[in-house]
Prior knowledge:
By secondary structure, the protein is mainly β. Helices cover 0% and strands 52% of the residues. The chain has strands at 3-7, 10-12, 18-25, 34-39, 45-51, 58-60, 68-73, 78-83, 92-98, 101-102, 106-110. Strands 2, 4, 5, 6, 9, 10 and 11 form a seven-stranded mixed β-sheet that branches. The protein has a four-stranded antiparallel β-sheet with strand order 1-3-8-7, with no helix packed on it. The radius of gyration is 13 Å and the shape is globular. The protein starts with a strand and ends with a strand. The mean pLDDT is 97.
Amino acid sequence: xVQLVESxxxxxxxxxxxxxxxxxxxxxxxxxxxxxVRQAPGKGLEWVSSVYTDGSDTYYADSVKGRFTTxxxxxxxxxxxxxxxxxxxxxxxxxxxxxxxWGQGTQVTVSx
Length: 112
């Protein structure tokens, strides 16, 4: 059974940083592209970032490019999202996902 469990969300001030983690199980983690997707209050889903199976290539939405960094540790079956210089517009529920499953999400709130 595919399981993706996000953690690391919380309340942070503008300009601050957070690191999200996504623990994967139930499938061969190293064989799948992984994605971060977010949903801001009252808005639709927004793709944030993707990472290739071995972590060699990463892709970012323009809205987070230069501030967010996606990485993965295939030995630990874990996906990460390092978020720096956070803005109020980054407030959202963040999900990790791949073609066969989604996590339950973790709330990130950027507010002073």
